[in-house]
Amino acid sequence: MKGEAVYVLGGLRTPIAHRGGALSHRRPEELGSLVMRALLARYGLSGRELSGVLAGNAVGTGGNLARLTALMADIPEEVPACTVDMQCASAAAAISLAAAKLASGQGELFLAGGMESASLQPLRVYDEKDPRHALMPDGAYKTAQFAPGDVSADAMLRGAERVMEAEHVTKEELDAFVLRSHHLAGEAVQKGWLADVILPVGTCRRDSGVRPHLSKKLLRRLPPHFGPGTLLDAGNACAIHDGAAFLLLASGDFLRRHHLKPEARLVATASVGGNPAESPRGAMRTADALLLRQGLSYENLAAIEFNEAFAVIDVLFERAHPGCLDRYNRLGGALAYGHPYGASGAVLALHLLQSLKLAGGGLGLLSIAGAGGMGEAILLERLPDAASEQWSREEVHEDV
Predict the structure, then answer these.
(1) pTM over 0.90
(2) Which of 79, 76, 69 is nearest to 32 (CA)?
(3) Are 282 and 309 in contact (CB under 8 A)?
(4) Residues of the chain with pLDDT under 70
């Protein structure tokens, strides 16, 4: 990014739990506050040192949940907090905004990420004067309107089906990526590749959606969501989950003063809009735009993380970049782990950092599509071990 260099000190997330599961009685601000508190403690930092908190949330109770979360985490009331709603891309947008504040010199240390409880998603009611009141039973709704003329609760699902049909995707292609996601996530669990970024919450210690022994036979039996002749089903669309994830972003001066070693440098971010009726296209569209601006290609990347809210996102990536599949969602994706909307962008960032570690460093990119045709992408560079070891020395420069 232009301006001051931005670094990722590290991050944490809760386990990702099914809606109605192990975290279903935990408010999103409680989940977020637990992660914030633990993350500051991990690096020996005080909330008083924060310049601000930016937190994504998509289906919570409204208001400034980031502020409530920060106060519940015992972050001093003098520290400002702002809630970001970009739906699925909310946490990634929060990270991008924090990075922009750092790059422009508006602070030195930010907590950025998001939290979500699909289990506690409130029922809302349109005012009787709102024309939409007459379109809903008693005017009540849970899913917001994402595009003019469409108030359907399943707009995202219909968008995925629309893209599958337009691209002539087959069920075999979709099922292959569902199995791949669960297999790779199972391997990541078995080998403990994410263990150091997962914060247990009570008795909930692991992600609940990973099914490494999922079979083709079971996937073939799943009924299509929209009836005969359609493709979307419970396997190739991610399940709905609860969870929270945050990163600490800092300036180089702050890190050196505190003798802290960053994991990565945040190189660039991008936000892109597109057709709200085909939201799954937003992941690759936004990633393409970011790489073009940076003069890079997918072949230059050591790790790639797309939020696979739908398996069609994976199919589109493989068709466009078949030679890069070995570095794509190396630890599995949201089809296995799940999708706690407002937190997912930060979950992707944590997985990207771990994937870059496995790759031995280099550049990594995450991208996530959001409701309404939006997308958010972030480019990270994992710092070499040699640079990390020298970080506290005065001769290390911002362009390390």
Answers:
(1) yes
(2) 69
(3) no
(4) 1, 385-400
